[in-house]
Amino acid sequence: MDGGIISFDQQFLFGLGLQLLNTLILFAGLSFLLFKPVREFMEKRSEKIRLQLEQAKSEEQRVLEMKKEYENKLGHIKEESDEILREARKKAQEKENEIIEEARKEADSIKNRALTDIEREKVKIKDEMKKEMVEIASMMAGKLIASSIDEQKHSELIDEVISQMGDVSWHN
Question: Name one Pfam family in it (predicted).
């Protein structure tokens, strides 16, 4: 032994070479047995994660499209409800106008019937007045003929007929 910590003699170099050869064989064996399956597992895992991310993106896109569709539907629902309200108001206004027109026609009909009834009553009253006048004239003529009339007698007859009639007022 020479005085160094590490001496590069033949035995040391042979042991070192063997150790390097064992390490390479161990590395190749482990690579074949462990690294390759672990790498494949990691690649499969990476592919699975990539597919899940793509699926998540497509789901997110689908959800966004559905959100837009629902927002459009909500917008259309508001428009539809406004249209329905406009139609209801229009129909209510038309119904109100119909009711008012019917009431106006009925009022005109009632007014016309009342005017007709008034005219009939006027004619009836005129006829009654004519009959009374004829009766009065007949009574006066009868009394006039029955007595010899002088002026004073004539005035008395008229006063008598008027008192028999009572308070009769003549209206046209």
Answer: ATP-synt_B
